[in-house]
Amino acid sequence: MPRLNINSETIAELRKLALMHADARYRLRCQILIRSTQVDTIREVAHQLGTNSSAVRATRRRFAESGIDGLADRRAKNGRHRRRVTADYRKVVAGLLTQSPEDHGLRATRWTRFLLVHVAAQRTGIVVSPSTVIRVVQRIVDDVAVRAPAEVRIA
Q1: Residue ranges of the alpha helices (H) in the chain?
Q2: Which end of the chain, N or C, is less packed with Cβ atoms under 10 Å?
Q3: 83: pLDDT strictly greater than 90
Q4: Is 107 helix (H, G, I), strand (E, B) or coil?
Q5: Percent of the residues in the chain that have a pLDDT greater than 90, as a whole number
Q6: CA distance 152 to 135
Q7: Which bin fits 63, alpha (ψ -120 to 50), beta or left (φ > 0)?
Q8: Nearest-angstrom CA–CA distance, 32 and 98
C-alpha cells in the first residue's frame, strides 16, 4: 500500500493524541497512522513500531472508514476508568482521620484500611479498595500536610 495522505491538521491532532491519550492501544494506532504518512510499506511501519502488519492494515482501514473516531477501542471499558477518588472523597477520609472509629459507632479504637473503606463508602457512596484508601491517606499526609493525631494509626 502507498503512503497515507493525511492533511497537516489531522497529523497534528494524531501527534497530540499519540502523546496524551490514556489508552496505549489508541496511542499505537495514532503512531501507526503518523508513520504510514512517512513510510512506504505496511511491513516497514509494523517493524518500526513493534507490531504486526495486520494491526497496521486494520488501523488504516478503520481510519479510512471513520476518521479519528474510528481509532477508539471498541471494548466496553476503554482506557482509564472513571476516577473514583474525588476531592470530596479525600475530604471525607481526612475528616475521618481526625476522629475515632468509636465516633462512628464502631467498636474499634483505631482506624484500619477496611474500616476507612467502609465508613467512607457509607458517607460518599464511593467504594475503593483498601490499598486505594491507603494511597489517599498517604496523599493527605504528604500533599496537604495534614498529620493524623498520634493515637490514630492505620493498620
Answers
A1: 8-20, 24-36, 42-49, 53-66, 87-97, 113-124, 130-143
A2: C
A3: no
A4: coil
A5: 59
A6: 16
A7: alpha
A8: 52
Distances (CA, A) of 14 to 31, 40, 43, 47, 48: 8, 19, 21, 20, 17
| Prediction pTM value | 0.50
Q: Report the b/e string of 27-57 with b at 16+ CB within 10 A.
A: bbbbbbbbbbeebeebeebbeebebeeebbe
Q: Which residues contact 70 (CB under 8 A, 6 or more apart)?
A: 62, 63
pLDDT score at 23? 83
The answer to whether 97 and 147 are in contact (CB under 8 A) is no
> What's the Cα-to-Cα distance from 7 to each of 4, 12, 28, rounded to whole Å?
10, 9, 19
| Residue owning grid cell 512517512 | 38
Task: Provide CB contacts within 8 A for 12, sequence distance 6+.
Answer: none
